[in-house]
């Protein structure tokens, strides 16, 4: 299973990916988690990423693409992966396609979790991570609209996009995602 969980910040990508990992035995690859780990470890990559993350901006494409390239090289991705938070720009999506074409393992499906902006702000304020303050959340939503939304058209044109209602009960959302997975 090679899928992308796509959606605005706080749409539930991370939450739903964890539930899929338990049953499908493929790794969840979250660029947000990988970047936060790099920041916590004080690596050079982490230092490059921190200011963008604090401001709710995207980390530079070349940094994130390099990180994903290394991660997809690891043996646990042989049976598939769930990408969570990547790609987030057209350059990232094109780089991903190139990487996976070389491996002969293209993305099969892109699940778009659709959630209202006001619900997103409430969820993230409740979570209260370092980048979950109202100003940064609004900026992350703007960044999503401007830089990430174009991917909807990109994947629709590839015939891979499935929109899923991401509002309401987490188990009900999980069931809708499973119904949209490749068979
Ligand atoms: P992420 O870590 O991806 O943060 P996120 O977009 O907020 O998503 P997250 O996975 O944490 O939240 P989720 O939707 O699961 O990115 C953080 C930053 O890293 C970015 O701003 C950027 O700077 C950088 N970054 C990451 N990837 C990048 C990339 N590819 N390129 C460049 N920069 C990148 O859900 C959030 C909350 O909602 C949780 O608290 C959860 O409990 C709650 N929730 C989920 N489902 C719910 C439901 N049904 N009902 C109620 N609450 C729910």
From TrEMBL:
Pathway the protein acts in: Purine metabolism; AMP biosynthesis via salvage pathway; AMP from ADP: step 1/1
One of the Pfam families matching this protein, by short name: ADK
Quaternary structure and partners: Monomer.
Protein name (record): Adenylate kinase
Annotated organism of origin: Spectribacter hydrogenoxidans
Region of interest called NMP, as start-end residue ranges on this chain: 30-59
Family, per entry: Belongs to the adenylate kinase family.
Binding site for AMP: 31, 36, 57-59, 85-88, 92, 129, 140
InterPro entries given in the database record: Adenyl_kin_sub (IPR006259), Adenylat/UMP-CMP_kin (IPR000850), Adenylat_kinase_CS (IPR033690), P-loop_NTPase (IPR027417)
The entry's keywords: ATP-binding, Cytoplasm, Kinase, Nucleotide biosynthesis, Nucleotide-binding, Transferase
């Amino acid at each position: 299973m090679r899928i992308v969980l796509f959606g605005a910040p706080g749409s539930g990508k991370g939450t739903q990916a964890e539930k899929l990992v338990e049953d499908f035995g493929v790794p969840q690859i979250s660029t947000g988690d990988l970047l936060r780990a790099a920041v916590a470890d004080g690596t050079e990559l982490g230092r490059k990423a921190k200011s963008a993350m604090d401001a709710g901006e995207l980390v530079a494409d070349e940094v994130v693409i390099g990180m994903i390239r290394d991660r997809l090289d690891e043996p646990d991705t042989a049976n598939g992966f769930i990408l969570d938070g990547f790609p987030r720009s057209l350059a990232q999506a094109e780089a991903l396609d190139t990487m996976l074409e070389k491996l002969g393992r293209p993305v099969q499906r892109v699940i778009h979790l659709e959630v209202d902006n006001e619900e997103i702000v409430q969820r993230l304020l409740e979570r209260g991570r370092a980048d979950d303050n109202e100003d940064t959340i609004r900026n992350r939503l703007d960044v999503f609209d401007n830089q990430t939304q174009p991917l909807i058209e990109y994947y629709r044109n590839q015939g891979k996009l499935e929109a899923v209602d991401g509002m309401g009960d987490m188990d009900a959302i999980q069931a809708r995602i499973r119904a949209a997975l490749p068979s």
